[in-house]
UniProtKB/TrEMBL annotation:
Name of the molecule in the record: Uncharacterized protein
Annotated region described as Disordered, given as residue ranges: 1-28, 78-116
Basic and acidic residues composition bias: residue spans: 19-28, 92-116
Originating organism: Takifugu flavidus
């Protein structure tokens, strides 16, 4: 997360860095959670686009996305968001099921996959 706190070498600040600088806000590294993992480049871009669409508010400026979802997906994602609205907010990210599974394990993600 440190990379988001500072300007990038290209001279363009990350959305997180700009938000922290402009608002005076901060975030706790211990509270950051990985939403999904994927080691395949294209699929990781699709997952990132889905999470940016579903997670509101989002600091992602959109211009940094590699993959833009067709508006066709809006109804499906909205329906998914409504179905999971209560369960998403009723648990802390670190909570696990009775079996001791992490949220990533419940989704069938492997621990060796890269974060989105």
């Amino acid at each position: 997360m440190a990379q988001h706190r500072r300007a990038t070498s290209s001279g363009q600040d990350s959305a997180v860095h700009l938000h922290l600088k402009e608002s005076g806000h901060s975030f706790e590294d211990s509270q950051v959670r990985i939403l999904a993992r994927e080691d395949r480049w294209f699929e990781r871009g699709v997952k990132e686009a889905i999470h940016v669409k579903l997670e509101k508010p989002s600091l992602n400026r959109g211009g940094g996305l590699r993959h833009f979802l067709s508006p066709t997906y809006n109804a499906v994602l909205h329906s998914f968001q409504q179905q999971n609205k209560h369960s998403h907010h009723s648990r802390r990210p670190s909570d696990s099921s009775d079996k001791g599974e992490t949220p990533q394990q419940k989704l069938g993600e492997r621990p060796d996959q890269r974060p989105c």
